[in-house]
Amino acid sequence: MNRHIAFDRLHNFRDLGGYRTEDGRHLVRWGRLYRSDSLGKLGPAQAESDRARFEALGIRTVIDLRYAWEIEGKGRVPALPGLTYHNLSIEHRPYDQAALGSEVDPGPYLAERYMEVAEDGVKEIRQALDVIAADGGGPGGPVVFHCASGKDRTGLIAALVLSLVGVCEDDIVADFALTELATDRLCADWRAANPGREPAWPGYGRAPGAVMRLFLAALAEKYGSVRAYAAGQLGIDDAFVATLRAQLLVPAGEPELTFRRADEGDVEERLRDDGHGIDQSTSRP
After folding, report:
1. Range of the structural domain that residue 83 is part of
2. Are 26 and 252 in contact, with CB atoms under 8 Å apart?
3. What are the backbone angles phi and psi of residue 186, rounded to the nearest 5°?
4. I need a surface site. Which of 25, 64, 136, 144 has the fewest CB within 10 A?
5. 3-class secondary-structure state, position 62
6. Could you give the number of structural domains in the chain?
């Protein structure tokens, strides 16, 4: 299964749908919640085809997890009609991954940084989860959240959401590690922005599953579980979790209602009143 959605400039845009809950009774809805690298790459200087692909997804809410200075330097998602934008910078202690020494082990190092974010950014994390719970399954349209590479801050929010709706740890770790499929392109972006240089850290752009595994273990060790962290630090109660599950989950095996935008191929479709009500027939064979 390929969760990555192809864009020219976005390298790590993924659908979080299809994950099964641990009890096997529900699946995360497809096409409702996305994670991505920086949507500033959709700006006016970039490929129009990427903006068209983005608009075709029907996304109505963007959660930008970056610092304000990152947005100022790299841009933000275009102000498209009907799009709601939230800037919620969940990280409070910036660090330069590309400049780290080769001796730094990605697993323990990044897990420690994630714990800092989980504790420093409780206000913004809760706000992000509030937006997802309100909009993630609603009629207003899908939600996407992103940071710069769509790996660390984005990975933390994805892990919390998937855990709260009941997805197992192995699937959460596997979802995190899917960034590895985008690593080469993310590193190429870094080189393009830093001509003649190479990242000093061999782990730059990497997303080994051990990072997420260690982070979830650290949350469990300190707070008892991810759910206990969410309750004690984020103020998330059973009612909130029930709302989040109702928005994002469907019973396993139950077909989801889907929609698509009309295109030229629908011109032949017609509605006609034959005097006995409306016959929704078609002239197609």
Report:
1. 14-279
2. yes
3. -65, -40
4. 25
5. strand
6. 1
